[in-house]
Amino acid sequence: MAQENGNSSMEMGTSDQILVATKKSKKTTYAIGFVAMLVAIGVVITLVVVLSGNEGAESEPILTTEGPTFPTTIPTTTTSTTTTTTTTTTEAPTTQPPLPEIELEDIINGEYSSPSFNGTWTSGNEILFRNSNNDLVLYDVDTDSRTILIRNESQILQQSFRVTSLSADGNYVVLSYNEVSPGTKNPSVMVTIRNIATNTDTKLNAPSDLEEPILKTVSFVGNDELAVMWTNRVQTALRIDLCTEATQLIPATCNAIYRYTEDDGWIDNIPLLFNTQGNAFITILPAEVGGVRYKQIVQVTKLSTSGLWSSSNRINTAHTVAEILLWTDDNVIWYKATGITDRAEQHIYTVTSDGQVSCFTCNIKRPDGKQCLYNDAVISTGSRITVNCAGPEIPQIYIYDKNGTLLTVWDDNSRVADLLALHTIPVTLHQTVTGIGQTEADVMIQVPSDYASRTNVPLLVYVYGGPDTALVTKQWTLDWGTSLVNRYGIAVARIDGRGSGLQGVETMFAVNRKLGTVEIEDQISVTRYLQQNLSWVDGNRTCIWGWSYGGYASSLALARGGDVFRCAIAVAPVVDWRYYDTIYTERYMDTPQNNVQGYLNSSLLTDEVVEAYRNKRYFLVHGTEDDNVHYQHAMLISRLLQRRDVYFHQMSYTDEDHGLGGVRPHLYHALEKFLKENMF
């Protein structure tokens, strides 16, 4: 659940393609060693992956004259822009004979999986990837030639085996976790630099001016220095040191070059990218633009031989930066961020040394003339860029050069397009709702194509709700919820309110030290608004479901929502933050000792929840070998409900981890059975 980058919504399906990663080794005689204990409560999910190539890569590239007019220059702004309009991204089709339903089994089996760029740029114009036969192939973009480097003659499927301890008599399996809960002692951490040539070590201790420091990341700066990023235990104070190894005459030194303190929230796991000269680095931190703070690209530059370096906002643009993609030698930064006028969009941008921000993908058109409004990219060290046009239409992948010329359609995803042409696709609605305290909530609803002429449409809310996450985007979506809309004629809504990550950091920090409060209030109040203002919604048949943090959110929404929700499904939910891991929990909640009331208010193990469930329908699902949200959470709430004589549904999956990957058909059939009995 608690992925360290904060964007942690559980995927309901996976692609059968993988990246073939290659990386040139750094020429240095040093290595970094970490002496640390791992917090085993963190996410440990093993995937069984079958290597397969991109089917489209074996066919001739599809060329089109459509492409971006690059660059689209975006002026820096001093005012923020928000929208409160209602838009429909897919038009309802005209009357026609009923088309076949989208089968659940097809979704589980990955028939509609989005394509991924299953290659790695190995040079400015060459890509290493696996083809449909699982051969390792080198593709030259300039000559449009393919060279098979390694053939997969055996067609052997990869397997992943779980390693456990077996008792001497063979009757028992020993599973042990080193569990570190909030408020308990964290493991100590030390950084070690090893000189491979001399086989000597230099140990770098954690700074003494940070309380129980956490090591965030390390990065070589040239061949002789190491940058080390630390935070305090609750991740509100940041320190970056520049360190040198010890020699026979000079001891190791670590000097602080940058400090940052966040008074209103927390410090995320952020990147640390140095330039080739080693006199500047860039990262992602909050900065004010037009009176609103957004995640921006901050450059920190060395201006003198000693003391702290100087920081400045490189982009000064009112949108949220998601990722830094590349920092070139000519001081151009490529990055991924939300749209300027629509935060549900995601585009690829550049910013020059003089602060000119340009959008690379804002004018990209698909071969059918439709726009790419949700984009991702992989950039080569040369002049090539792979663009994943991931929405709102069926995803396609293109290769451009950096001046905006389309070179190749890597994958037109025609197979999925042909499959979906046989079905009626739900309509997607986007809306912004003003919620409690005049805050905005973004809403996306998948509805039947004839929704406008219907009444009494059941509504299912899919929630995640974790800090700095977002479900409402222009990314193409076809998942279990889409299948429910298609087969049962219900509507599925997603709501991003306070705590979500795309509206600026003040909205995100609204949940600081109080998880389980305002983000739950927004799910309830916005759902009530939809029931009262959408004439076709059946307010008496509204349920909510979620997985991981979403299971926690759905459980609280059912308890606190009054008559808004008739039922709730909680898959692998946290029930009390005192039993989750320290790094994730304390980032948002501080320690239990410092935030007693916050932990009490956020718990599901209360009389309020018990009594609320007495006349509700609640379905609890958990894997017994969940190594992220431990099965302990399910046992705690089930014991409480049972001892209070509150009836509920429960499904435990033996030996399944957090992803429940081995029982997906059974899981979704069980969820549908529950919804049929209580909502449809």
TrEMBL record:
List, alphabetically, the Gene3D superfamilies matched.
alpha/beta hydrolase, Dipeptidylpeptidase IV, N-terminal domain
Pfam families according to UniProt:
DPPIV_N, Peptidase_S9
- Bias (Low complexity) occurs at 64-94
Keywords, alphabetical: Glycoprotein, Membrane, Transmembrane, Transmembrane helix
Which GO cellular component terms are attached? plasma membrane
Q: Which GO terms describe its molecular function?
A: dipeptidyl-peptidase activity; serine-type peptidase activity
Q: Where is the Peptidase S9 prolyl oligopeptidase catalytic domain?
A: 476-678
Q: Which InterPro entries match?
A: AB_hydrolase_fold, Peptidase_S9_cat, Peptidase_S9B_N, Serine_Prot_S9B/DPPIV
Any one GO BP annotation for this protein: proteolysis
**TM segments?**
30-51
Record family assignment: Belongs to the peptidase S9B family. DPPIV subfamily.
The protein's name in its UniProt record: Venom dipeptidyl peptidase 4
Query: What is the primary gene name for this protein?
Result: jg26500
